[in-house]
Give the backbone structure.
Amino acid sequence: MLLLEASVQMFLSQIVIAIILGIKVTDHSDDLSKGYAIFVVVLVCTFVSAFAWSWGPLGWLIPSETFPLETRSAGQSVTVCVNMLFTFVIAQAFLSMLCHFKFGIFLFFSGWVLIMSIFVLFLVPETKNIPIEEMTERVWKQHWFWKRFMEDDNEKVSNADYPKIKNNPNSQL
């Protein structure tokens, strides 16, 4: 819920900033009235506060709590790598995008906030009050989408069964 609540706050902040800058600031004007400038700063602070209590910390917390115990360290490593890579890409591209898109950069990022929100709404399960040890059974194997990627315990083939299967001429191995 925190991600979805913050998404609304972030989306609306960016849309309103884009509208104000699109209407009030043109290529031939060099000032924004003091009232609009203060309002834009308040909206930027609103966006930052929404990110600070939701997407910022939860982007690190959710993966650490949802990966199965067997793959948690590898999953968290990938999470850190992807997070830092995209932070670098956005930091490098932001200024040139701002120069080319102008107020449209706020529409661009609000579009990504909308996509992230849709992803969370449909594909990120609620994990409140579920112990980490039970995450696979109670969350991932029950989720409408992710359960198709989960291995059923009945389908597992243990190493002890391999010689029996290997010597069986009817096996598929």
